[in-house]
Amino acid sequence: MTSPAPQRGYLAVKRAADVACSAAALVLAAPLGAVIAAAIKADSPGPVLFRQQRVGRGGREFTIYKFRTMTPARPGERRIALSPAGDARVTRVGAVLRASKLDELPQLVNVLRGDMSLVGPRPEVPGYVAAWPPGRAAIILSMRPGLTDPVSVELRDEAALLAAQSDPAGY
Known about the structure:
By secondary structure, this protein is an alpha+beta fold. The chain has 7 helices and 4 strands; from the N terminus they run αββααβααβαα. A hairpin with a 5-residue loop joins strand 1 and strand 2. It starts with a helix and ends in an 8-residue tail after the last helix.
């Protein structure tokens, strides 16, 4: 059995790498972020950033940031958290951002703040986390959620996969 001290050291190095890499990426990507923000504003009304509550390490909720890719919800409108391929709510600029994964760029702020890591399980909305089996939830929530993970690479075209399902939320 390994002692907690080596794991703490590993986590400190991982966190330092997360901070250094996300800070550098934010600085380098700032001009691109400005262009994306202008394109979002020109394409559709509403805010540039999308904010949503997600569940992180230890079950703590945090606000995740993304570039907005959908039309804003109307007051009182309830929306499902999924967006299958062909979803009419996705804007033209949003479709490009999703295909290129550039909509995720603002999550570097979440990494810098400590809500997320560069690599780890993707953070999920509270409703889906509540449906996880307790043993699996404990394992997933023991780690800082990540900007990317192996499943994100495997399910790169998740929207098309969801569009093929009769019940995307159930799937």
